[in-house]
Amino acid sequence: MSATSSITVDGKQVELPVKKGTIGPDVVDIGKLYAKTGAFTFDPGFTSTASCESKITYIDGDEGVLLYRGYPIEQLAEKGDFLETCYLMLFGELPTEAQKADFDYRVTRHTMVHDQMNRFFSGFRRDAHPMAVMVACVGALSAFYHDSTDISDEQQRMIASIRMIAKMPTLAAMAYKYSIGQPFVYPKNELDYTSNFLRMCFAVPCEEFQVNPVFSKALDRIFILHADHEQNASTSTVRLAGSSGANPFACIAAGIACLWGPAHGGANEAALKMLMEIGTPDRVDAYVAKAKDKSDPFRLMGFGHRVYKNYDPRARLMQATTHAVLKELGKQDDPLLEVAVKLEEIALKDEYFIEKKLYPNIDFYSGITLKAMGFPTDMFTVLFAVARTVGWIAQWAEMIEDPSQKIGRPRQLYIGPDRREYVSLEQRG
Ligand code: SDX
């Protein structure tokens, strides 16, 4: 006997089915509510609204749990690599050795972009924000790869998925190189995913480039931590864009645009700028006071989360990665880390943060690590986008393959003027 929930609207009582997932909260299926009661539900920000069924990622915000296809993020980050996580996201199971080798081979051989794309970059100012460049260039991929834009073709969907995962690092590195006036560096097939990316970012034609294995391992872990996160704002953007039948490149470009916001993926750049502005541990108290002041719009960037009301498990793993990178650089006493540790210590003891369940999220430590590795702050969200591409594309594919899928089209509560008659210009006074 399936559970139901009853709701009465204007005296009309209706029974609505309750659906249960594998784990996590039940959902009340309100699909028939409007037809039966003439009323909509109202939930701006979707704080209590499930937009879809998904098998990809599960978050328990109270317990600070994150599972990719059922596997704890801590185990995947500790024992696997990013392309293994990509395979898991796309196919739902961890790959065998043969499957992993084949997947790595296929991704590696799609890392080059059409050489005509190089010309796009010369149209940008050198100081253009690299996220602006990424939105433009990723959307433009659909101008080149017509053989993987038919979303009804499973084969084309898979080619587009592989191409997106493979080409994002190349485009990200090109955006960085362009911003510093250095020549683009082509990918090298003998390198692993993150080593290839680091070389495309930091190699110069004048000398051989040796990838630091501590950095490539750290970046691989950072990519795993950022790969997917249920129906966050940018993933929901990709799903909504995809629900109209738009091609995958255009949908990912929409996701990149949404991720750019400082309340979302832009928080890693904003968090580092905040730590730099605070500067020294003795100034932390004043900033915590600002964050608590309702009349001050300032928020502690890298703190708080819609779902996590406990420590973001990714933040803990991020913190460990930060220490590994700083140790490699002999910078264990990095002043930014000192400020971050002090800020976290004070905030976690403060009644305001405890009562509102505000904890460090993944963006709190990532910026310190990326800065130490040599990335400028405006590249931080680009790296987030590189990692999240697999989550976006896996969620997009899941939506396309969902037999109940239809175009997303929310309703509204209209609070504008009632019908009124047009007044001619002369009569408007
Ligand atoms: C990401 O959704 C995802 O999964 C996202 C993400 C992913 O992997 O895709 O995890 C990535 O986006 C992480 C979040 C990065 N953003 C930041 O670090 C920006 C700073 N944090 C916030 O702006 C905020 O916490 C959000 C946007 C992350 C969550 O906002 P909510 O859930 O809408 O909560 P809210 O804005 O309603 O805040 C609840 C209360 C408010 O106070 P009251 O109005 O109830 O008195 O907490 C306060 C807020 O003022 N608050 C903060 C705060 N975050 C919330 N106060 C100070 N500093 C903060 N950082």
UniProtKB/TrEMBL annotation:
It comes from the Bacteria. CDD domains: EcCS_like. The keyword Plastid does not apply. One of its GO terms (biological process) is tricarboxylic acid cycle. GO terms for cellular component: cytoplasm. It catalyses: oxaloacetate + acetyl-CoA + H2O = citrate + CoA + H(+). The keyword Transferase applies. The active site is at H305, D363. Pfam families: Citrate_synt. Keywords: Transferase, Tricarboxylic acid cycle. One of its GO terms (molecular function) is citrate synthase activity. Belongs to the citrate synthase family. This is Citrate synthase. It comes from Methylobacterium gregans. The gene is gltA.
